[in-house]
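Write out this protein's structure.
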Amino acid sequence: QVRLVESGGGLVQAGGSLRLSCAASGLTFSTKTMAWFRQAPGKEREFVASIRSNGVNTDYPDSAKGRFIISRVNYKNTVYLQMNSLKPEDTAVYYCAAERTSYVPGSRTWSDYDYWGPGTQVTVSS
């Protein structure tokens, strides 16, 4: 049974930083593309970052580029999202996601991911 569990969310002031973690189990983590998405109330789920199994190839939308960094430690089955220079518009529930197929390029489409964590709330105050 695949399980993804996010942690590290919380309340932070604008300009601050947070580091999210996602611990995975029940899958061959080192072969899977991993991603972070977020969803604010009343909005669609939004792509934040992805990282391929090699830990080298990453992808970010413009809203995250230069502020967020995704990384992974395969022997720990964990993926991270370092978020810097946070803005109030970054407020959302952040979800970790994994693809079922191994060694695939990262996707920006949430429906391409097969496994999801329950999410962690990030609130940025102005």
